[in-house]
Write a structure and sequence with these properties.
With 287 residues, this protein is α/β, with parallel strands linked by helices. The chain contains 11 helices and 10 strands. 35% of the residues lie in helices and 17% in strands. The protein starts with a strand and ends with a helix.
Length: 287
């Protein structure tokens, strides 16, 4: 069943806050997978990081990412590779969707960050059924826990033309502890405005919770190259005080399944919406 994000009529005063609110006045279409599939992929967290790399690649394959679309990028200085699935578009423009799959030894690393990595194949499935303007590049990053190693290597391999053609980088890290949140102080203002608009349209909540005192995220590797970037997460102050991350408490039982699937639905709608928006339009939201 296709989900259709119907644009609120452009005469509604609140929507007039967004200069590009009518861009998708047609229909933004996407086809989310079932909750059962999303949760079954979340449950495949077992193993060390090399096994997770293989699991993620297999899940992309199972989602329909063919041999010509899937690849592994060996990361210099690491035994791990970035896992990449590409959904071709028609415009020459790109949107990168990322999440790291590595974890530390304490706990099972389900929240941080199999919760993000395991959503990548499901987001690919949500978008693939409809022709897209943008090429979507879904990347499972290696070695984030050792200092953004995988994402920095990925960005370092991008040519100037590829950087210029990248309209957005959407990063997912630590989902399912609560309803969807964004790292607002480090988010591109245009991307921030876009997810707020989409959340309103599908009647879900997205809040701004900054995490710079806690750590960093793979989106920062892209922001340094001036690629519009955003990190979507769920790390509330309460969850941080409960010491769930980097501890034995990081288990699948810490995930709130309703919040997790709602985050998946919002991110799928958000990515489909971004296909209607150019980098230039996002830039105008900064002024």
């Amino acid at each position: 069943m296709f989900k259709i994000l119907r644009q609120t009529p452009c005469l509604v005063p609140a929507i007039l806050l967004f200069s590009w609110a009518c861009v998708s006045a047609q229909n933004v279409q996407y086809k989310p997978v079932s909750r059962e599939i999303v949760e079954s992929r979340l449950e495949k967290y077992a193993g060390n990081d090399k096994q997770r790399e293989a699991t993620l690649k297999q899940m992309f394959t199972d989602a329909g990412c063919g041999d010509q679309q899937i690849s592994e990028q060996p990361v210099r200085g690491s035994k791990l590779s970035n896992v990449i699935c590409t959904l071709p578009g028609s415009s020459g423009k790109t949107i990168i969707v990322g999440a790291h799959f590595d974890h530390i030894s304490d706990g099972d690393g389900v929240v941080d960050n199999w919760s993000g990595a395991s959503l990548l194949p499901s987001l690919y499935e949500a978008l693939k059924a409809v022709p897209r303007k943008h090429t979507y590049v879904f990347v499972g990053f290696a070695e984030e826990e050792k200092g953004l190693v995988g994402s920095e290597f990925y960005v370092g391999q991008m040519r100037k033309g590829q950087i210029a053609a990248t309209d957005a980088m959407v990063n997912m890290d630590t989902l399912g502890l609560a309803p969807t949140e964004i790292w607002g102080s480090h988010a591109d203002r245009g991307l921030n405005a876009a997810i707020t608009l989409v959340a309103r349209q599908i009647h879900v909540t997205v809040t701004d919770v900054d995490v710079e005192r806690i750590g960093t995220a793979d989106s920062e590797s892209f922001a340094e190259k001036r690629i519009p970037s955003i990190t979507i997460h769920s790390l509330t102050p309460e969850a941080w005080k409960a010491h769930i991350l980097h501890s034995s408490k990081d288990k699948i039982t810490a995930i709130h399944k309703d919040d997790y699937y709602q985050s998946y639905g919002l991110i799928a709608a958000y990515l489909a919406f971004l296909d209607q928006i150019s980098r230039e339009q996002l830039e105008r939201k900064k002024h």
